[in-house]
Amino acid sequence: MSYRKASASLLLGTLTLAGCVNLAPIYERPESPVPAELPGGATGVAMDDLIAWDQVFLSPELKELIELALDQNRDLRISAANIEVARAQYGLSRSSLLPTVGASGTVQEGGRFSPEGVNSSSFRDSALVQLGVTGYELDFFGRVRNQTEASLQSYLATVEGQRASRIAIIASVAELWVQLASDRELLALAQNTVEAQTDSFELTQELLDAGVVTALDTRRASASVQSARAQAAQYEAQVRQDINALRLVVGTSLPASLQDDAMLTPSPVQLELPVGMSSSILLNRPDVIAAERSMLAANANIGVARAAMFPSITLSGNVGYASTDLEDFFNNDVGGWTFGPSFDLPIFDYGARRSQIEVAEAQQQLALAQYESVIQTAFQETADTLAVAETIDTRVDALEQYAEDTDVTFNLSMERFRTGVDDYLSVLDAQREDYTAQTQLILARRDRALNIIGLYRALGAAPVVPGDDTSLASDDQ
């Protein structure tokens, strides 16, 4: 057999000698620790439609802010970098499945010389070329393959971590936008109240001069003006804080037009759900998927620990040619080869390998407990938002009617005061109730919008990131 055939046989044999025993436990998804169906829900869109965030957040200005945040937010950049680190680590583990093939070569020229001079007939050329495989482990017990599987699952969990970050950023921007809109409306309400209270104060001054009211009425009117001014100042500061918080989440300065266009009516968000949703939809949440990936990684690590109880066998070998004639190097049939396996057999290690198995099994149980805890938390978050969703519309409708009634009552009370039928105390009572009703209505509309955002967050309905390359993971599963 020629040395060329020996080289080919060596490489082919190395590639095909890997074993097929896998000592990792067979993975089975645990039973869900929550009820099969989520409570509540209203007739609406199909569940497949929940994934499009731009269909949940309707305001064009809000959409623009979300897109800006997805592009600029530093937390997303950190999670993207973490994905690249995990991808590289997986690539390192995956490369262990294949042999490392290397080539080396040397070319030399030499001769002899003496005091009489150089003897040209003593010149000699030499060359050596080698091709070899170094330290390739025959994975008879699945140690390397399970290490690769654990790295793969860790990488996929990191991908889900970025998806969770996107959900958090989208929801946070929307929540801050809604908070800004509600505080703007509360500020406008307080400013309108200042104007109305100022008009009332001026009226009481005129009536005091005419002897219709007492100084007590003017003092009450003045106190109402100052109270309204204080509330307006408070909401003005809150609006500025909302803008600062929104700027932090977005990651850059905000266009003034986007800040000024924040409003609660019409509603900037909308999400309807089908009746009787299965709780299995929660399995699409990125934190749930990441927790299951961690279970799979822990499962594979048990296989790694178990394989350490058995001998590991590695192969090394090379084949090469040597010649003293460079011009006729490849026609020269002078060559050589080496081949040799080596093994590492555990005999006595004071229980270290057994302890490693116990550690891996304990970590698997920990991952299982964390997985079940994540699902229970997801169920509670979703159930809580659905509970609010069932009643929030009734609350808003009632407050709209309440605010309308108190507004009419205030106007009637003011007219009765002008004509001298009622004193100013009745006006103050009607005005306070009207202000309270308008405030509660704004807060209820805010809570309805925030609950929709909370439901979006709870369901984990994040979009697929354009340009994300997860095919590496998919191909290996």
Provide an overview of this structure.
The strands form 2 sheets. This protein has a 4-stranded antiparallel sheet, covered by helices on one side. It has a two-stranded antiparallel ribbon with strand order 2-3. The longest helix has 67 residues, at 143-209. The chain has 11 helices and 6 strands. It is an alpha+beta fold and 477 residues long. Mean pLDDT is 78; it is low at 10-19, 42-46 and 462-477. The chain is elongated, with a radius of gyration of 38 Å. A hairpin with a 2-residue loop joins strand 2 and strand 3. The protein has a single domain (31-105, 144-310, 346-476), classed as Outer membrane efflux proteins (OEP), CATH 1.20.1600. Helices cover 61% and strands 11% of the residues.
The total count of helices amounts to: 11
The whole-angstrom Rg is 38 Å
Write the element-wise H/E pattern from the N-terminal end onward: HHHHEEEEHHHHEEHHH
Major beta sheet, strand line-up: 1-4-5-6
User: Mean of the pLDDT scores?
Assistant: 78
Major sheet, described briefly?
Answer: 4 strands, antiparallel
Tell me the number of structural domains: 1
Poorly predicted segments: 10-19, 42-46, 462-477
Query: How far from one another are the termini?
Result: 41 Å
Helix content: 55-70%
Fourth-level CATH superfamily? Outer membrane efflux proteins (OEP)
**Structural class of the helices, strands and pairings?**
alpha+beta
What is the general shape? Answer: elongated
CATH architecture: Up-down Bundle
